[in-house]
Amino acid sequence: MEHRDKSSKLPHSTNKSAIDRFRKLQQKEISISDIFEGIITQNTAALSKGITLVESTQQKHSAKTQELIEKCLPHANKSIRIGITGVPGVGKSTFIEALGNVLIEKGKKVAVLAVDPSSTISGGSILGDKTRMESLVRSKEAFIRPSPSGNSLGGVAQKTRESIILCEAAGYDVIIIETVGVGQSETAVHSMVDFFLLLKLAGAGDELQGIKRGIIEMADAIVINKADGDNVKRAREAKNQFKKALHLYPIGENAWTPQVLTCSALTKNGIEEVWELVLNYLEISASNGYFEKNRTEQNKFWLLQTIEEQLKSSFYNHPEIKKALSDQLDAIQKHQITPFTAAKYLLDKHKNS
Amino acid sequence: MEHRDKSSKLPHSTNKSAIDRFRKLQQKEISISDIFEGIITQNTAALSKGITLVESTQQKHSAKTQELIEKCLPHANKSIRIGITGVPGVGKSTFIEALGNVLIEKGKKVAVLAVDPSSTISGGSILGDKTRMESLVRSKEAFIRPSPSGNSLGGVAQKTRESIILCEAAGYDVIIIETVGVGQSETAVHSMVDFFLLLKLAGAGDELQGIKRGIIEMADAIVINKADGDNVKRAREAKNQFKKALHLYPIGENAWTPQVLTCSALTKNGIEEVWELVLNYLEISASNGYFEKNRTEQNKFWLLQTIEEQLKSSFYNHPEIKKALSDQLDAIQKHQITPFTAAKYLLDKHKNS
């Protein structure tokens, strides 16, 4: 009897709660390990479960998510990440399906993710309706996941970025990130991909819109879709116009000259060429070191981005600040105070609270 | 002896320090009051002194500056603020001088300020050389002040915004804010003026640059300068091109359609028309309430802007964070950690320090 271990001498209740804690710990270990093992053995159900965890907004899942991502990290970073944008109606789904099928024929595994912060409100304008990529959905080599929901672009983008890591650990060779051609989503997606592709239509008359919004500046390739039937000639003309527009921009440090292609996602014409262009890009940017450098820069960018969003959010969501900010805004409206004095007052209040 | 006041019972040293404090307080009161009285009685030397105080980076001046600005505030807000931008060589100084002289002939008092964060390095690319506005400098009705120096646009812009208040309290009817056509300075100036004017040259071939950089979107008027001699025809052509470009943009809530004019700052041709355009704008935006609304929105914008800059600066300049951030960036470079985990670590560290 003298050899019983110390824990059994504890009062019953404490002992029980210790056991419960141990069980919970065990369950957690098993659960995350299970998901992780599933992911690296390319089990799609496990990958889905992992992404669901990543997308969870519940505080209690946060530590688990981090654990899972850190386990996956050494297995990640091995894909090519392609961002695809274009206004609604340009044929993004059909294009992604056509490109995805070409890749699968070449023995690649393809994951399609999305960034669309509006999807909560609109009910998912992109990838929500998987039937639009019917043949890709049926393929075992493809994994398609709609945009995570959320009101802030920062939150949605973070979840997609983390999902990329899981998909890479699950052995997907090409990760396609789709986004809608509105707002800041394109900048966010550009900051998480290796190759950024702008999908266009001929004669849409929005050539200047892309310049205005800085999208053309980000594009590694402009692909003019629906170059079929009567449209072929117009697509060729548009190609020349965009080539001219691209000359406005200096060549970046990658030494890559953005290219303009035409294709028809419907007839599959020109899709193969898009992939060849991506491979060409990869070759150049891998050999001159830009590929690695860019990924590291992107990670650093996301670090700072996340910090700054968090600083703002914890300031503005502070209950005392909320009230005080509203008072200061009133005082500004009445010309009683300068914005700089009001800012100082609020910052001091925040520091002392 | 029983009637002596309490303070004289204090030990000599305390009493002396109390007197010193009182004297300093008095000096401070007198000094700020002097400057303030000088400003509202339109004394240029006092205004210069006040702006020097505003521009001071010394911590001890900060409270004084706030006091002065708050005193001036009820006397401010009565001018029209005009932002003027354009690339180097477009003739900003000559244009501002020509416009300033037209205004002075009409009995207006004109202050010219500037925002140029690069001026510390470049030695003041704008307004630094006052000889470029010779006749304006000599006029009693004009006040010209070069850009405050500083490395951060936020800091430079804040100082200029505060100087506007002092100039308005000193009775200047028109405040012209000049900025260079590079970087984010134009956005900052746009956020502190009522009317934003983009100065252009004919045939400079940079029409698309303005669209690309979002400057045309901000402009209430585009004025094509140097429309003289052989250049008149080209200027007229450029005018038509810019008119077309402006059609790309939807009319804002102000119901104002941005206008394109030609002028010659050299021959003074068309300068009067620029001022008429500004008056026309004022009439419309005052009658529909946009003028007031815009100023309030600008103040609110600067409140949030200042808060966010301060939050970032106090985070990144924290000694512990500086070291830790550098370590986390290393870990990111080595793919040992995700940017999100690193951000969480740093934010937790900051919270607990």
From TrEMBL, chains A, B:
TM region positions: none
SUPFAM superfamilies: P-loop containing nucleoside triphosphate hydrolases
InterPro entries: AAA+_ATPase (IPR003593), GTPase_ArgK (IPR005129), P-loop_NTPase (IPR027417)
One Pfam family here: MeaB
Stretches assigned to the AAA+ ATPase domain: 78-246
PANTHER family from the UniProt entry: METHYLMALONIC ACIDURIA TYPE A PROTEIN, MITOCHONDRIAL, METHYLMALONYL-COA MUTASE
Assigned protein family: Belongs to the SIMIBI class G3E GTPase family. ArgK/MeaB subfamily.
The protein, known as: Methylmalonyl Co-A mutase-associated GTPase MeaB
Organism expressing this protein natively: Aquimarina litoralis
